Amino acid sequence: MKKFYDMIETPAMLIDEKITLNNIKMMQELSNRKGVALRPHIKTHRMTYFAKLQMEAGASGIACAKIGEAEVMAKAGIEDIFIANEIVGISKYERLKMLNRKIKTLRIGVDNTFQIDQIEKVFNGEKPLEVLIEYEVGEVRSGIISDEDLLFLAKYVNSKKNVVLKGIFSHEGHTYKASSMEICKEKAEEAYRRTVRAAELIRDEGIPLEIVSVGATPSIMNGAYFEGITEFRLGTYIFFDLGQALAINDFSKCSASVLASVISKPTDSRVVIDAGAKALVSQNRTEGICATNGFGYVKDSNNVRLKGLFDEHGIIENKKFSQEISIGDKIEVIPSHICPTVNLYDKVYLINDGYIVKEIPVDCRGKSQ
Amino acid sequence: MKKFYDMIETPAMLIDEKITLNNIKMMQELSNRKGVALRPHIKTHRMTYFAKLQMEAGASGIACAKIGEAEVMAKAGIEDIFIANEIVGISKYERLKMLNRKIKTLRIGVDNTFQIDQIEKVFNGEKPLEVLIEYEVGEVRSGIISDEDLLFLAKYVNSKKNVVLKGIFSHEGHTYKASSMEICKEKAEEAYRRTVRAAELIRDEGIPLEIVSVGATPSIMNGAYFEGITEFRLGTYIFFDLGQALAINDFSKCSASVLASVISKPTDSRVVIDAGAKALVSQNRTEGICATNGFGYVKDSNNVRLKGLFDEHGIIENKKFSQEISIGDKIEVIPSHICPTVNLYDKVYLINDGYIVKEIPVDCRGKSQ
Questions:
Q1: Which molecular function GO terms apply here (chains A, B) (predicted)?
Q2: How do beta strands A62-64 and A80-86 pair?
Q3: C-alpha to C-alpha distance for A210 and A352, rounded to whole angstroms
Q4: Do B279 and A92 touch (CB under 8 A)?
Q5: B-chain residues near A292 (CB < 8 A)
Q6: How far B365 CA lies from chain A's nearest CA (Å)?
Q7: Which residues of A143-285 form beta strands (DSSP E)?
Q8: pLDDT tens column, B118-175
Q9: All domains of chain A, ordered by start, with CATH?
Q10: Would you say B348 and B15 are in contact if contact means Cβ atoms under 8 Å apart?
Q11: Which terminus of chain A is less hemmed in, N or C, by CB atoms within 10 Å?
Q12: Which candidate in B141, B145, B339 is best for mutational testing of the A interface (most A CBs within 10 A)?
């Protein structure tokens, strides 16, 4: 093991091992206490290494966003995968057919009959594909909105022989924009109530539903819960990021950072680092409890944030910080939004007490097809 | 050759071969007419394939942003590379030393004495490293600002035996925010005037300067020029993007697009595609001639733009477009900002007349160290 600062070429992604293991344990225990299954969403880390640690800690399975991710995870031995997204395309269902033969449990999200018809066609004579209906609860993204459409789709699925309706899922992503933690929790619980009600509507039609899946890191960290939920499905809690740390007012859970070098100090307040939009992503949440006010937070600093990101340069404007730092120094930046940031790297460095424990491949990086 | 829509898994990046070759030729001819060298910046495409085409078309060399890129390009046989960025760190200079032995011409950007001291130390006994001083002309990024600092650094470099001052360079990136094409050109020419003047100041000290390098796609497309410039250094012109097309009011030069599938239509106006922030980057220029008003433009559409990007979903809100398109259809999206978008892909599909000509690896993807 070597002291890491000295030999890591920047920009690079570092993962603090202790904090990450604590985060995994913390969320599993929280789910266990509530009596719901935990299905971590691996779109945050995109690494089989961490998915396996989450499974070993007690996760019931994993959630993915894309078939490409699910294929990599299945190859690594994970046997219970829910792709929480609408999959469309005959060639994609052909791939799902192969995957469905290979692992114990494969499920996908649906919100339209076009998908059901494609599944029905491709899965003919196969082990049926299990699906969960996506229900919209305020995020303004995908998912069924009206009761009428919901019941129509549930009955439509139920009438097919190669598709099995297993449950319902929703994502309370709009709670990221809540103006306080209390309102975040309220909005999340209202979203959960609506999801549970939607499940009841379907059950009232005599269609059994096993799973009611919800979750997002800020909501669950703020204690949101509603009777009838069977599964928490969330991703960012493993590493946190600037937005998520602000949502819970706690930076101590941030385990991922981008190591960068100071390459220029053109004025007495401007510090330029070698991590730009290809190393940190220029996302900046503008409202609510996750509002990041910039493009990253200098770790262990007194609120030093990146003001700007060019493709290859990160810009800090801070006179005091500039006085304390020299060209050639390395700093760690907590990204604004971790999920697309991890996806920029081929590997991460696992760090423990300042030493490199190992290099971990981001083996689902770019696997968005 | 196969018709491409049918078999490409989405999201994927497509490059139109004819338009790209035309763009390469157009910029080379424009530079030739002005009598200045063209040094394409490969940070846009990050592919040795296109760098070689640019060299074959008459480019004097290439510009890179990172050593990682330069190493890949040198390995592919490119012998004249300028890394237009401040490089810091002994280990990085050790890598540059290897590269300097290998290729005919290697140059880097400098704006501080810390770099010069590191070069002087590492390059002792080697072929000296050639450098260009970066001069700030309004972008508020890196580069020397005052005449005093400029002359101090020029003399400092000139006093060393392992570093050779070859020129000066600037980047008029602030012109992206100009409110009109005329003002863009004016601002660019003012930036060029200042760069040429800075070169003269150094020459007046008896220090010869061979190169005066400037350039950004909107400025040069708008005809900006100033006597004394020796080199155009720009990247985006090879593919253009939404911001750059708006800057010149011409979409016909956009040769890169992201192929995406419609996966959901939750309302009568909302269309959800399978390309999110991991396939299109959620950058949105907010002001000036490059203001993108959204996160991508649906190719050949009547101003249909992506309103939102989640990690894995792109959102269009357009009633008319929604009526015309079905779940399962594939669309092409011109990205808001091409440079970080290409960097998300391992390969691109080269397309000619609707057929796949070949798959090209993005061999510098992620090579930001």
A1: D-serine ammonia-lyase activity; D-threonine aldolase activity
A2: parallel
A3: 41
A4: no
A5: none
A6: 9
A7: 163-169, 211-214, 231-232, 256-264, 270-273
A8: 999 999 999 999 999 999 999 999 999 999 999 999 999 999 999 999 999 999 999 9
A9: 4-12+243-361 (2.40.37.20), 79-234 (3.20.20.10)
A10: yes
A11: N
A12: B141
